[in-house]
């Protein structure tokens, strides 16, 4: 398990290498999630998630975020969208997803409050379907002006908490924010850097 002491004992060069790997992976995930969103918005929903660690960790947009009719940032969904949410959950189950790391802020949950699912709480509804849920509330940086140092500290706190949840949750794990680019991408990249199998089956550690 990653600890604060392990982080502090890491050499500056090792820290730089790790952060460079994380940044490279973050950009890759961000590109893939943006491309996936464009395909869904154009009516191709044959894929709903992007695998970061095959069969262990995936990213997805929040349900219907890029739907051709109901998509949009923080756009309230009408009751007629209920069946589409139910269909989304079934498709995620088909992919084998067992657990969800949610980075949703209250504003991300708000669009689903008018739906008859989980008394308006989509995370509660997902829990009733058997998904294991770990919530780490993380407000979208694009909707909040925060000093860079403070924003970095928040990201580091969230990604450490998400890593601990990932270690404890049944796999495969799905990580979600809204668009999957500004919150899920850096957090998933961090988990991938520390937990994805390497060429010889080893894993990157903060002591490498």
Strand order of the largest sheet: 1-2-5-3-4
User: How many structural units, i.e. domains?
Assistant: 1
CATH class descriptor = Alpha Beta
Q: What's the total number of strands? A: 5
Helix content: 40-55%
Structural class: alpha/beta
What is the N-to-C succession of helices and strands?
HHEEHEHHEHEH
Could you say what the CATH architecture is? Alpha-Beta Complex
Principal-axes shape call: globular
Q: Do you know the CATH topology?
A: Protein-Tyrosine Phosphatase, Chain A
Note the main sheet.
5 strands, mixed
- Overall average residue pLDDT: 89
Continuous helix count: 7
Distance between the termini: 14 Å
C-alpha Rg (nearest Å): 17 Å
Topology:
Layout: H1 4-9, H2 12-41, E1 49-53, E2 57-60, H3 82-94, E3 99-102, H4 106-109, H5 122-128, E4 132-135, H6 148-168, E5 173-176, H7 184-195
Parallel strand pairs: 2-5, 3-4, 3-5
Antiparallel strand pairs: 1-2
Helix pairs in contact: 2-7, 6-7
Please describe what this structure looks like.
By secondary structure, the chain is α/β, with parallel strands linked by helices. The protein has a single domain (10-195), classed as Protein-Tyrosine Phosphatase, Chain A. 45% of the residues lie in helices and 10% in strands. It has a 5-stranded mixed beta sheet with strand order 1-2-5-3-4, with helices on both faces. The longest helix has 30 residues, at 12-41.
Summarize the entry for a quick read.
45% of the residues lie in helices and 10% in strands. It is α/β, with parallel strands linked by helices and 208 residues long. It has a single domain (10-195), classed as Protein-Tyrosine Phosphatase, Chain A, CATH 3.90.190.
């Amino acid at each position: 398990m990653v600890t604060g002491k392990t982080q502090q004992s890491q050499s500056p060069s090792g820290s730089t290498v790790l952060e460079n790997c994380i940044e490279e992976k973050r950009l890759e995930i961000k590109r893939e999630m943006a491309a996936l969103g464009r395909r869904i918005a154009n009516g191709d929903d044959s894929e709903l998630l992007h695998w970061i660690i095959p069969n262990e960790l995936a990213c997805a947009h929040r349900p219907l975020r890029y739907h051709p009719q109901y998509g949009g940032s923080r756009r309230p969904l009408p009751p007629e969208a209920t069946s589409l949410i139910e269909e989304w959950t079934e498709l995620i189950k088909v992919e084998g997803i067992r657990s969800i790391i949610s980075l949703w802020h209250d504003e991300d949950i708000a669009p689903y409050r008018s739906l008859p699912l989980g008394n308006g709480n989509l995370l509660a509804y997902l829990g009733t379907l058997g998904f294991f849920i770990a919530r780490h509330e993380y407000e979208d940086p694009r909707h909040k002006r925060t000093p860079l140092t403070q924003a970095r500290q928040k990201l580091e706190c969230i990604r450490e908490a998400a890593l601990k949840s990932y270690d404890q949750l049944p796999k495969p794990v799905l990580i979600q924010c809204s668009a999957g680019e500004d919150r899920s991408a850096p957090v998933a990249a961090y988990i991938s850097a520390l937990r994805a199998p390497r060429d010889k089956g080893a894993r990157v550690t903060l002591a490498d």
